[in-house]
Structures are given as C-alpha cells and as structure tokens.
Structure of GCN5-related N-acetyltransferase:
Amino acid sequence: MPHKYLFRRATPDDADAIRELVHAAYAKWVDIIQREPLPMRTDYRQAVTAHRIDLLYDDDQLVALIEMIPAVDHLLIENVAVRPSAQGAGHGRLLMRHADLLAQSMGLPGVRLYTNALFTENIRFYRRLGYRVDREEPFLDGALVHMSKRV
C-alpha cells in the first residue's frame, strides 16, 4: 500500500511533539560533538511563531520536520529532523524538495543551510542534493559548514 504523505504548518500546540522529534533525531550527535546540538536547546513554542516549521506526516504519523526562515534573497533551512525509525525512507529528500518548492513559490533564487562540520553524513546528503559548500566558520568548539543551492 502506498504511503500517504501530508505536510502541515506547525502551531504552538505542536511544540512538545516538535521537541520530542528533534531530541530523538539529534541524539546520535551528542557523543560526537560532546554537547547537545543547538536544535535540542530551542524553545519551539517561540520558534513556531518566529519561523516556518512544516511537519511531515506519513500515514498519520509525525515522522519529520523542516524549520525555515525566509530572507530577502534566500530561504534559510534552520533545522531538518527525521525520526530515527523513519530515517532512510526518503523523508529527508522530501523535506528538502519541499524547501526548494517553497523558495520558488516565494520568488527566492536559492536555499541556504548550515550544519556542524562533524555531521559528515549530513554534508554528503546535502551535496547529493546539489548543495555546495560556501564557507566554514569556527563555532563553539568546532566549525559550521555553510551550504547553498540555487532553485
């Protein structure tokens, strides 16, 4: 039976579910960077009003989300999180395509994101989707990798 996917814009009522999903998705990185990644520290009650967070449901189950911030000349992807039990099923690609289409619908020429330099599997994933590394910058005890792509 085919999957039924649904995107829905998050509201403040979704903050607890968002926090739970983000904590599950980012838990694997804690040992690698020796601290909680910033998305694990975010106040999602505030974020859902300040940013655009779209939730992805697969057969009525919340499996992933994407947090975005429109700017004058690009759409910034602030956070991409996929529930560990749903990883590898194409949800990340679906989220990233969703961001591309949103940027296009807003008349924005590109999408940008940043990630921890130690999240090498994420960097490889973004490169496969056409993102290029723009720069690296020191951040806390490591580095951030800034990436972008035209849409």
